Amino acid sequence: MKFRITGPFHSHGPSSSSENNRWPTARENKLGSWCFVQRRALKKGELPPTRKDLLDKIAFPWSLK
């Protein structure tokens, strides 16, 4: 399954967990799974630079620590 970034997100992020001020984990829902895939692709050097730039623009959390 592939996803595309099509527009800006709300200031609290695209999360059903916004009340916790964090992004969902892979175990919580499909968005969490997609986030996991993006992080793994970055670690493996397989994430296209244009996608990383787009995710950086929305303050994508590359680390959950």
Question: What can you see in these coordinates?
Answer:
With 65 residues, the protein is mainly alpha-helical. The protein has a domain at 22-57. 37% of the residues lie in helices and 0% in strands. It has helices spanning 30-44, 49-57. The chain is globular. The relative contact order is 0.17. Residues 10-18 have low confidence and may be disordered.
Task: From the structure above, extract its key features.
2 helices, single chain, 65 residues, globular
Proportion of residues in extended strands: under 5%
* Tally of DSSP β-strands: 0
Summing up helix and strand content along with how strands pair, one would put the structural category as mainly alpha
- DSSP helix fraction: 25-40%
Task: Give the rounded overall mean pLDDT.
Answer: 77
Structural Rg = 11 Å
Helix and strand run: HH
The shape, in one word, is globular
**Sheet with most strands:** none
User: What is the number of helical segments per DSSP (H or I, 4+ residues)?
Assistant: 2
Q: Terminal Cα separation, in Å?
A: 26 Å
In terms of per-residue confidence, which ranges show pLDDT below 50 for 5 or more consecutive residues? 10-18
